[in-house]
Known about the structure:
The structure holds two protein chains of two kinds.
Chain A: H1 2-7, H2 13-20, H3 35-40, H4 44-57, H5 72-93, H6 99-132, E1 139-143, H7 149-152, H8 161-177, H9 180-199, H10 204-222, H11 226-253, H12 265-274, H13 300-306, H14 316-327, H15 333-349, H16 359-377, H17 382-397, H18 404-435, E2 442-447, H19 451-462, E3 467-473, H20 479-489, E4 493-498, H21 502-505, E5 511-515, E6 518-520, E7 525-528, H22 531-540, E8 545-548, E9 554-555, H23 571-575, E10 602-605, E11 612-615, E12 618-620, H24 625-636
Parallel strand pairs in A: 2-3, 2-5, 3-4, 5-8, 6-9, 8-11
Antiparallel strand pairs in A: 6-7, 7-10, 11-12
Chain B: E1 3-10, E2 30-31, E3 34-35, H1 36-46, E4 51-57, H2 59-72, E5 78-84, H3 89-96, E6 105-110, E7 113-115, H4 119-129, E8 133-139, H5 152-162, E9 165-168, E10 175-179, H6 192-198, E11 202-204, E12 207-216, H7 217-226, H8 233-243, H9 254-263, H10 269-282, H11 287-292, E13 307-311, E14 318-320, H12 324-335, E15 358-359, E16 364-365, E17 370-371, E18 376-377, E19 382-384, E20 387-388, E21 393-394, E22 399-401, E23 404-405, E24 410-411, E25 416-418, E26 421-422, E27 427-428, E28 433-435, E29 438-439, E30 444-445, E31 450-452, E32 455-456
Parallel strand pairs in B: 1-4, 1-6, 4-5, 8-13, 15-18, 16-19, 17-20, 18-21, 19-22, 20-23, 21-24, 22-25, 23-26, 24-27, 25-28, 26-29, 27-30, 28-31, 29-32
Antiparallel strand pairs in B: 2-3, 6-12, 7-14, 8-12, 9-10, 9-11
Amino acid sequence: MDPRRSARTVSDPKVRQVGFFTPAAPPERSCSDPPRQQDLIQPQSPSSTQVNDHFRSGDSLSPVMIPPPPHHHSDTLHRTALQVTSPKTAFSYSARTVTIPTENDDVPSSLSPSRKVVAVKSPSSYPGVRASSVPASELTTVSVVNLPPGISEKAGGGASVEVQNDRPVRSKSLKEKTSKAERRAMQEAQRAAKAAAKAEGTKASSAATKVVTSANTKPSKAAKPSSQKNDGSQFAASEKKVGDRAPEKDRKKDAPHPRMQYDDTSRVEKAKKRAVVKQTEVRNRVELFRHLPQYEHGTQLPDLETKFFELDPMHPAVYKVGLQYLSGDIRGGNARCIAMFQAFKEAIKDYSTPPEKTLIRDLTARISSYVSFLIECRPLSVSMGNAIKFLKNQIAKLPLALSESEAKATLVSDIDRFINEKIIVAEKVIVKHAVTKIRDGDVLLTYGASSAVEMILLHAHELGKQFRVVVVDSRPKLEGQLLLRRLVRKGLSCTYTHVNAVSCIMQEVTRVFLGASSVLSNGTVYSRVGTACVAMVAHAFRVPVLVCCEAYKFHERVQLDSICFNELGNPDAISKVHGREDINYLDGFVNRENLQLLNLVYDATPSDYVSMIITDYGMIPPTSVPVIVREYRREHLWS
Amino acid sequence: MDFQVVVLAGGSSKNLTPLVSKELPKPLLPVANRPVLSYVLHQLEQNNLKDLIVVVEGEDTALVVGAWISGTFIDRLHVEIAAVPEDIGTAGAIRAISHHLTAKDILVVSGDLVSDVPPGAVAATHRRHDAAVTAMLSSIPVSGPLDSGSSGGKDKAKKLGRYNIIGLDPGKQFLLHIATGAEIEKDARLPKRILRAVGQMEIRSDLMDAHMYAFKRSVLQEVLDLKDTFQSLKEDVLPYLVRSQLKSEALSNRTPQGEENGNEKVTSQNNQVFVSRILANSSTPSFHDHSSENPDGSASTRKTHKCCVYIASSGSYCVRLNSIQAFMDINRDVTGEADHLLTGTSSDPNNNIGPSPKLGTKTTVGPHCMLGEGSEIGDKCQVKRSVIGRHCRIGSHVKVVNSVVMNHVTIGDGCIIQGSVVCSNVQLQERVVLKDCQVGAGFVVTAGSEYKAESLARKEK
Lengths: 639, 461
């Protein structure tokens, strides 16, 4: 890297700042691009304004994350505070508002019917069983969760079951009957309670339940002892409900910023509190990469697993995909993106708009909460970021007049269209382009396992071209072996080597085909770690480097190094060799203060080493990437 | 999460003969003064699983159990009770309620499981691998009392019977072989196909099938329909699924494809293949994929299903109450080292450890003991590592060590009870010595008698 840096004239501090990508990126950004880039792209200025416009307008549209809708949380806080206070105020008020008597009546009455059901039902249904005595047996409901009707379709969510139940009646009666002075007093009481709730801070929900219990237990003291148990369990139920809901809202509001600087301890602490997945951070991190999240591997999965049934708002399909990301069962930009979209599709199909909410807003918030869950499982790839951006844009564009089922159908078909056009057709086009670059007698080198490159090789083989393939691989993932296996099975002639031997093997290579996780607007190719190394060696040997990447993975970000954005893998993966128990030199050293293990996942290949990028818009030089980015955005986000 | 929970509570167990009776079926057998079923139900409740089907053997038992559940868990759980005839086995029980199962996956839990392993973990593993069945395995608990060597020999003999022989893949994620019950004595027979596909297999005998399974509903129902001789989930259904995981003809091939085709009407078939290929190529292949593809690379039509395992971490507690020894162990552990199972669970507030209801002078109650409400103990008694139920009357100079005494028991002066179980309403007259005995409910032990390693019960009328 070093010689290249010095050769380059543009190691401008401004550009570096852009790399960190604050939303208010200065518009001079495009000017600081190398001049040759401007030659190529004529309408530069519109593009830059568009870029900025975009930043400002869609605060939700950063590549790797979706910031939360800002007002949600405060809204709920407000609401719970209101509801909690209402019984109090009514209490302090007058006997006219009926709260305590009704509540008191409520307890036994809600209890007795279910008891009756048990008593009547169980004997009556048993004779049936006895008579039939065939294996088929009947079910008898012995215990029922006794929830008032309000809770099952809870919309905004009240703090307590009972309070919510009573609310409409009471508020109506209040409006009708209270005098002006009374109303003012009530307002004041509410305000005071709200302030108190706010003072409680994030623990508002728990405080709310406490208030509810006190409200609950007061009448039950007077009631007969049998109702006490019932009371307690109802409290438990309401507490559960609150507990379930609060984190969801929290998550929506403060999804951890994917570009959070993880060396900022206070923020990390905050994020950790919200996280669904328990994340234990590794102690010894490499200084340069402190700002990246690095978790103790092996702690997340079991913890997430135990919560399987507790994450109510999470859709099972999304949950499954998250688990698969976390455990590494699904990897690769295309596959992760497809898996995510298929999960979202399921979620959308099962979605129904809660009352008093609009589909557009609520579904966006729902998707955001899913996304932040997925981020906790594994940081998003650029392709996923773009795909999410697309989906949210589609949701936002839905006409308000559309019925729910129509809207859902539209979204599902949008998702299908995206997968179809942007991934499947794009890959076919890439293959068509790339095959023209393969001639008989070529020796093609590829690194890792890119789905696009694999298609190209297989297609060229089907066309009957005579060529040889060199598969370069690296530890610890050894994805190349899977590619190799598939290629060899198809009858291609292959050579397999590891990346340390790349300089030796490069002499006989005539083309290098590489996949990419993302292509950034300065032409940098962001890809599997080791790609840069291969590209540089190829460059030194004057072998053309062709990067195959679908256009939906392009991103307007500018990145000059692979430090500011990256992902850290499991450090154990490099300290241990799978299947080789005898290599245990690092046993017991892993937690030493002076040992730091670094397992990077991605690296950035500067555009200088890339001869050509093959994308679904054609074969372009790396300097033309901004055009693609702009065109793509025009087509998909503003259309 | 689209899971349905079936709790197999059982009925009267032969293994526990003197302890269980018509009035006190196995699900209600008190462990640390709470019915054993409540541990499972509570654990499910904590995991937010509130829709349960409890399957009980025998209608009378079902009535008793149902009454108890409705009394304890009203407003907290939505429980449906199904009574099945006795001796149809676990598979038969599921078959009987099969038409009530509608969710995508079924979680089957044994009602006698006392554990703190979250069921969610099993379910999550199941979902992650999209398995046909996922079984929970736990390490075999240390059996027998810690400090009394008296019953050591007997323990070993009993423990041997519980061993499973389990074959796992190197990643410890898939179940390749399982032998239970009588099969252990026979030679292990493995399908060659599985061995060839996996390459390496780890045979373990230190793991126990904890009888918590997640089944894909379609697979489970199909197996039960096809093989109507299958009696037990553990001994028939699970081994069958494991054996046939690489050549499942009827199983699981229809269902997933049918679902997917239904979902993807929009995309053409070709694209569908494409998508699935991308997904398949990017994920780590399991041995199932290797075996299902022919050497020339084309995926063959042979269908496979996955049998996964979730191995509980060594720190968690997981025991099944299926023998008297296990009953003793669980009582000891729950009051002792695994007391987190009790905290916060008390269905009524009097169930805490070490309240001293009414103790005579110079009576010592050691640690890890539990005394139920309303029990009275006379002077100069010693209680060590024991559970004593409610409303017991214990005279003076009594020694109770490593024992379980249930409710309403009267113990006369000068009795010595060691390593025994004394059921409800038993009357022990003066100077009775019991060592490693089980006394059935309502039995009267005459004064001065001594028993060692015997099972005393009233004659059935």
